[in-house]
Amino acid sequence: MNYEQFCTALSDSLAAKTAPKLTVTRKQIPKNNGIHLDALWLHQENMACSPVVYLQPLYQEYRSGRPLEELSLSILRSIRRDRPLSLTLPDLILDAALAREHITFRLISHALNEPLLDELPWFPFLDLAIVFYLQLPSDSGQTSSVCISHSLTQLWEITPDELHRLAFQNTPRLFPPVLDPLEQMIAKYTKSSLPALSDRPLLHVLTNRSASFGAACLLYDGLIKKFAGYMQSDVLILPSSIHEVLLLPRTARLSVAELRQTVQWVNETIVDRQELLSDEVYLYEQKTDRFTVCPPDPPSSHDTPETGGKTNP
To answer: What is the mean pLDDT of the segment spanning 66-92?
Structure first.
């Protein structure tokens, strides 16, 4: 059974097993960086939210030997067990007063999301874009979100500046930062013990507690400034993905050109396109408390950076 046949068969199987009031529709779901994912949308009358089932991973399971009937039953069990969102969702979206506490921000690529940005309130940061999301409560404990569009801000009668203020207030509270040395982060996820490379490790990983869209922690008030003070150095920032960034003291005397080549290589060979953030390397300067895109030919670690890089306060 090829992919198209599988999608049709799974849709028919789900429709046959569900109540008449539940409809199964195939849709293209827009994601970050211009990606669209193939999915089945299961819509039931009087439900605040409709579950979405992504097809490509299920097809891979089918090709690995899992029967289609088993996949179909597993999907339905999951939907019945884990109601995706609270029944108060319509109130949250329609009521600006309720929504205010759930507005957050993310960092995404500007260049890869230009068509999407036409529909959204957003702010520039270097070669990136700050966009806004409404975090949704879930009866099952799973997190979900809705991208905040111009139409939603018009409904709420909220300005972009107010949106920005609320998001920068809420996001650190809802998604607390996690900043660990790289070897400690590896040990945490591999559940193995790694020897420390030095008393003061150089390479650190910055993300949030959920490890999702953690690159936004870069803009948490005073966080990078505090890290720079601890390291007694300006900070080089490598955008690993939308989920995390790597931090290095500039005193490490590493070639920025080589670091940029490494970031580009990782983006081309390892990072999923949907999770790409940037091919650039950034610099945080203690003296000016500013972020800069490192210029092509950076000065030595003891000199003032050359002009020509993009800057943001």
So the answer is: 72
C-alpha span between 189 and 184 (Å, rounded):
9
Cβ within 8 Å of residue 73, ≥6 positions away: 17
For residue 96, the Cα-to-chain-centroid distance in whole angstroms is 24
Long-range contacts of 256-263 (CB under 8 A, 24+ apart): 256/281, 256/294, 256/298, 257/296, 257/297, 257/298, 260/294, 262/238, 263/238, 263/239
Instruction: Please tell me what DSSP assigns to residue 291.
Output: E
Region label for 126, one of left (φ > 0), alpha (ψ between -120 and 50) or beta (otherwise): left
Token digits of residue 186 = 């590896």
Domain ranges of the chain: 3-81, 89-174, 177-312
Distance in angstroms (rounded) separating the CA atoms of residues 135 and 112: 23
The DSSP code for 275 is: G
What are φ and ψ of residue 26, in 5° steps? -85, 135
Q: Decide: 104 and 174 in contact? Cβ < 8 Å.
A: yes
Which helix (DSSP H) or strand (DSSP E) does residue 57 occupy? helix 55-63
- The pTM of this model reads 0.82
Cβ-based neighbour number of residue 33 at 10 Å: 17
Locate 14 and state its tokens: 């789900």
Residue recorded with tokens 């929504």: 99
> Which of residues 45 and 61 earns the better pLDDT score?
61
pLDDT tens, 213-257? 999 999 999 999 999 999 999 999 999 999 999 999 987 677 888
DSSP conformational letter for 56: H
Report the 10 Å Cβ neighbour count for 100: 16
Sequential DSSP letters for 102-120: GEEEEEEESGGGHHHHTTS
| Diameter over CA atoms, the chain | 71
From 303, 104, 134, select the one nearest 219 (Cα to Cα): 104
The token pair at 205 is 């990983």
